[in-house]
Amino acid sequence: MKKIFSIIVLSAGIVGFTSCSDFLDQTSPSEQTTETIWGSEFFTKARVDQLYGGMINGDRTYDQDIPIKWGTNTDVELVDGLGANATNSTHYRGVGNYSASPAFTNFANSWDDMYAIIEDANINIEGIRGSSMYNNGTDNERTMVQRYLGECLTIRAMIYFDLLRYWGDIPLKLESSKSDLSNAYVGKTDRDVIMDTLMVDLEEAIDLLPWADEVSGYTTERITKGYVHGLLAQMAMTRAGWVIREQAKEGYETASDYSDPTYPTQRPGAATRRALYEKALQHWTAIITNGTHQLNPSFKNEWELINKLTLDQTYRENLFEIPMGLGDSGELGYTAGVRMNFGDVKTTNWGYGNSSGSLKVTSELFYSYDPNDTRRDITCSYIDIRPNSSQVGVETMLGNAPFGLYVGKWDVRMMSDSWKSQNLNAAGKLGYGINPVKMRYSQVLLYYAECLNELAGDPDAHYEGDAGITAREALMQVHTRAFEAEHLADAQAYVNSISGKDAFFDALVQENAWEFAGENIRKWDLIRWNLLVPKIMESKQDYLTHLTDGTYQKTVYFKYTDSSLTTIDPSSVTWYTNADDAKAAYDALPAEEKALWSSVSSYGNSYPTKLDDTQIYTNLPNLSCGLVGSTVVSPDYGTIVGSGPAEPVVVNRYLMPIGSTTISASNGVLQNSYGYSN
C-alpha cells in the first residue's frame, strides 16, 4: 500500500491479514483478475468483509480511538490524567482536554486508516456496479450483490460521517484512486455538501438491504436496513445542528453565544432545519414501526449481553455492532471499563491485570441520577479491583475521586467464561472482543422524541409521518426501562411532570447523559445543540456547589457481602446519608457485623478552606481547559486558575487538527484552520 496524503491507494485485491475475527479470516483474491473478483459471489463477499476488517485492524479506528478516546471530553465524560497532563498536546490526555497539536501522530494514523477503508469501499462500489452479476445476473445474484453494494455505501458514509465530526470540512473522494495519481490529491469539501451527498447514498442503500435477521448472515454485526435508516436520520439531525465553521455561510444563523468572531458557530436557516428534521422523523419512524429493533426490557441485561459477546436476537436493541475478536481486538473493557488495578500481578480469580480504565465519568453524573435508577451503578463504577495478600482480586472503593469514576458498562464481572479463561492464562494484554455499538434503539427513541417535539412544538402532539407515539411516550419508554417495578410510578410521574416544548428538550438533554454516558454519543449531540461549552462549565460550577451544600459526603460507609471482604454490597453505601448519622449507625453495630463494614473518604472531602486540594485547585480548572479555559470563578472559592490556558484560543474549538504529516504529504491542498498550526 502507498499512502497518498490521506487516501491509502489499494490494489483491486484484498490486503492480507492474520485472522482476529471472521471478517479478517478471508481468502485473498489479490492474484485474481478484476473480472474474476467481481464476477464471483465468493470474492465479492470477501472484498466487502475486508471493510469490516479495516474497522478493527488496529487501535486508530474502531478498536480504540474512535469509540473511546476521540469522544471526550463532555460534561460527564473525561479522559484520565488531569493537572499538567491536560495540556499534553501530543498525547490523548491533551486531546481529550482540547489541547491537541497537529504533531500528535495518532491524528495522521486515524486519518490514513479511515481513508483506507473509504478507498477500499470506492473500489468495491465501482467493481459491483460494473460487474456482470449486478448488471446481467440472475435475480438471486442481483439481490445478493445489491446487498453488498448497500453495505459498501453505508460503511463509506459511516466513515465519512465520523471523519467530519472529528475534523470538520474534509476531502470527499467517491472514486477509486487512479494509477497516475491524477485524482489522489483532494482538497476540503464543505461538510454540508458531504452529508447531503451521503444521505442520497444511504437512501439507495435502504432499498438494497434486509432488516436484521431477515436474511441468513445479516445479523446486527453486519450493516442492515435498520442501521442505515438510523445513520441517515442521525446525519440529517447533525446537518440541521450547530457547528463551528472555517468561515461564515450566507443564509445561516450565527449563534449568539459560544461563537468565535473568525470561526463562527452556525446552523442552517429555519426552513432547511425543518426539512431536515422531517427527513429524520421519516427514518426514525421506519425503525419504530417495523419492530425489528426494540428496547431490551432490562438495561442491565443489555450490558451483560454486550460484555458476554452475545448478540441479542430477541430485541436487537443494538442496530449495528462492529464485530471484534476475543483475544485479538477490542479495547472496550481495557481502556474503557472497570479497572483491574494490579498491573502484571495475576489474581487467582481474574487473572492478568489487563485494563487501564482511561475513560472516566464524574461524581456530578453519579449524583444526577435518581437513587433508584438502575443505570447509575452500571454506568458509574466507584470501585476498582485490586489484589489482597492472597492475590485474590477484591472490590475496592475509589474514595475521593470526583473526576475518576470508571465506566461500569464494560465490566470484567459481567464478562464471559471464555474471556475469563483467556485472561487467567494471559501473560500480557489481550483483546477483549467487545463490540463497539454504533447505535442503540434507545437512541432511536430519544432522537425521535427530539424530532417530534421540535416539529410539533409540544411533547404530546403528533406530526404527519410520525410513528403513532408522542415524544413523551418515546421518552417514557427509555426512562422507565431503568426502574424496577416498585419505583416505576415515580419514574412515570417524572416524565409526566415535564411541561412544554423547551422543558421537554431540556429533559431530553439530561436523559441523553443518563442513558449514554461513556458510549461516545453525548459529545456529538452537545455540539449540534451548541451546549458542549455551557454544559462543561455548568458541571464545574455544580461540583463546587455540591461541595458546600451537603450533597457530597466527606465519608461513606459500605458493607461487604462476604467475610473475605471480596464483594461490596452496592445497596449498603451511604451515598445519601448524613455523615454523622452514618458514623453513629456504624459505631452502634455489633463487633461481628462491624467486621463486614468499612469506610472511605469521599467526594465531600474537598472544601474551600483546603487550599491545596488537588481536586479543586488542579483537576477541576484543567478539565477541558483547551475548550473552556482553566479559570473557574465561584462565590465560595474565589477565582481558581489552573495550569492550562486561561481562555480558549478559539471559541468553541472542539474539532481536532489535521495531522502534520497528513498536511505535508498533501501536495499543498490541505491546511489547518481554527487557529491550529500546520
UniProtKB/TrEMBL annotation:
Residues 417-676 form the RagB/SusD domain. It is found in: Cell outer membrane. InterPro entries: SusD-like_N, SusD_RagB_dom, TPR-like_helical_dom_sf. Keywords: Cell outer membrane, Membrane, Signal. Residues 22-233 form the SusD-like N-terminal domain. It comes from the Bacteria. Pfam families: SusD-like_3, SusD_RagB. SUPFAM superfamilies: TPR-like. GO terms for cellular component: cell outer membrane. Belongs to the SusD family. This is RagB/SusD family nutrient uptake outer membrane protein. The lineage of its organism: Bacteria, Pseudomonadati, Bacteroidota, Bacteroidia, Bacteroidales.
